[in-house]
Write a structure and sequence with these properties.
mainly alpha, Four Helix Bundle (Hemerythrin (Met), subunit A), two-stranded antiparallel sheet, two-stranded parallel ribbon, globular, disordered N terminus
């Protein structure tokens, strides 16, 4: 995505970034979303779906908080994740199928909503009793570092990467849902003769994986930009 300098309310020259997604479920998900978008009632548009996604993620965070007193909360989280997938994945598809794209507005609002929703989700995890607050904080920081890198790369390189190593947002929701189901049976993980909370182990692995993704992508994209824009030769001194 490239936005040229302009006054806040003036007309901008805008070029949408190329979406790059090679996750395990990309093909199936794309066909499913297109099928759903063509059958969605005309009265429901992309803004409705974006709001639904936000409320669902806030609901997931509150459900994790509820899980601190009853395991019903874990089931509600899975339901909220499914609703979030529906809204978050379908809003852009509906706009494209109906030829109602608003690239600047859609990109900005979608990622503001994602940031707020993710903060609510991890905040709920920190209050759930299933994950230590420090682990939830580390996971949040690592996640936002990856988001920052992705958004900067989209602006600088014109490519918006939506998955890494075959894992995208949909796969992450599925993994989290599987983790919730596992918590109902085995909330404790035994490693090297020591017992840890399952989600503490998963959270540490997730944070390390996100940090590694941030580092790898930052180095790769920095190299690409350096090759695209090598350092100019020093200008000749006019006095010589």
């Amino acid at each position: 995505m490239n936005v040229l300098s302009a006054a806040p309310h003036s007309r901008m020259t805008f070029k949408d970034a190329v979406r790059v997604q090679h996750s395990a479920l990309t093909g199936l998900e794309r066909r499913t979303l297109q099928w759903m978008a063509r059958r969605l009632p005309p009265s429901i548009h992309s803004d409705h779906l974006t709001l639904l996604a936000l409320f669902a993620m806030v609901g997931a965070g509150l459900s994790y908080w509820l899980a601190s007193v009853t395991t019903v909360g874990l089931w509600l989280v899975i339901l909220c994740l499914a609703v979030n997938w529906f809204g978050d994945s379908l809003d852009g598809t509906v706009a494209r199928v109906r030829q109602q794209q608003r690239p600047r507005y859609g990109y900005y609002v979608d990622h503001i909503v994602d940031a707020v929703g993710t903060l609510c989700l991890f905040g709920g995890l920190a209050l759930s009793g299933y994950m230590a607050p420090a682990v939830a904080a580390a996971l949040t920081i690592a996640y936002f570092l990856v988001c920052l890198e992705v958004y900067l790369a989209a602006h600088s390189l014109g490519e918006f990467h939506m998955s890494f190593l075959g894992v995208g947002p949909t796969e992450l929701r599925i993994l989290l849902a599987i983790g919730n189901l596992t918590l109902l049976v085995h909330p404790i993980a035994a490693i090297g003769g020591h017992e840890f909370r399952l989600f503490d182990v998963g959270g540490v692995i997730g944070a390390l994986g996100l940090a590694g993704t941030f580092a790898w992508s930052s180095i790769r994209h920095t190299r690409a930009l350096y090759l695209a824009e090598p350092r100019p030769a020093a200008a000749e001194d006019p006095r010589s």
